[in-house]
Amino acid sequence: MSNINLLIDVVLLAMLVLTTIAIVRIESLFAIVMLTGVFSLLAANIFIILDAVDVAFTEAAVGAGISTVLMLATIGITGYEQKRRRKISWVAPLIVVTITGAVLVYGTLDMPAFTDPEAPIHTHVAPRYINESPTEVGIPNMVTSVLASYRGYDTMGEVIVVFAALIGVLSLIGIREHKGDPKHLEPPARPVLQVMSKFMIPFIILFALYVQFHGDFGPGGGFQAGVIFAVAIILYALTFSQQDAMDLAPPRILKRLASLGVLIYGGTGVVSMLKGGNFLDYNVLAHDPVHGQHYGILVIEFGVGLTVACVMMLIFFAFISRGDRNP
C-alpha cells in the first residue's frame, strides 16, 4: 500500500511541475487560467492524500472554483493575450531566483525533519488539541475547533482581509450597472443552459447550506459555504445575464450584507466581553462552556459565510460589468 501511495504522490507532483512549466511558457491568458485551475485540483488531491480534507475542500472550492471564474472575468477587462515585449536576458532573473531559493532552503535547515515524531508540533501542539478539544469545545471536527475557537483571532483577520479586498476592488473599478441593457440576447442554444442552471442552482445552494451548518461534524465551514453559494449566483449570471443576476442579488444589498458579516464576527467578541469573558471567548455565551462554544462557533461561521459569499459576488459583478472595456 505504501508503494501505491508513493507512486500516486510522485505522479501528482510530476503533474504539478509540468503544469507549472506550461503556465510559465504559454502566452494565452485563457489557457493560463485553465491551467491554474488544474493546478489547484492537483493540489487538492495531494491534500486529500495527506488527510487534510478541509484544506483540500477549500483548495477545490476557492482555488479551482471561484478563483478561476474571477480570473476569467478579469480577462474580459485585460484581453486574452499577453502584450508582446522585447526579449530580455534570462540571466538576471535566474540569478535572483537561485539566490532566493538558496535563502529559503537555508531557512529550513534548523527545522525538524519531515514526519519527525519528536517535532514540537507532534509533542506539544497536536496533543493539546487532540486531548483537550473534545471536552473544551465538544465538536467532532477538530479543524473547526482550531479555526473558529482556538485561533478565532486569526480567522477574523482572514475575514477582514477578504472584506478589504472587496473595498480595494470597488475603489479601483466599482460596479457598472447597465440597467438599460436588454436582458435576453442569448443565441438559440442558450435556453438549454438556462434550463440546466435552473435545475442545478437549487442543489448548489442546498449544498452550500449543508457545508455551512455541517462544518462542526465534517469538512466545511463559512469560507467554503460562502464560495459555493456565490458560485450559484455566478452561474445564474453566466447563463442568463449580468443584469438578471444583479436583479436577483442587488449589489447595494450585498455591500451591506458583506459588512454585516464582519460585524457579526466582531460583535460576537464584543458580546463575550460584555458577559465578562475575553474577546471571542465563547464559554460565557451560554449556561455552560461547551454550549457557549457551539453557539459562538455557529454565529461566527455564519458571519464568515455571509461576508465571503457577498464579497465573491460583488467582485465578480465588478469585473464582469467592466468586461466591455468601454469608458
From TrEMBL:
GO terms for cellular component: plasma membrane. Residues 192-313 form the Na+/H+ antiporter MnhB subunit-related protein domain. Pfam families: MbhD, MbhE, MnhB. Signal peptide: none annotated. Keywords: Cell membrane, Membrane, Transmembrane, Transmembrane helix. Belongs to the CPA3 antiporters (TC 2.A.63) subunit B family. This is Multisubunit sodium/proton antiporter MrpB subunit. The lineage of its organism: Bacteria, Pseudomonadati, Pseudomonadota, Gammaproteobacteria, Thiotrichales.
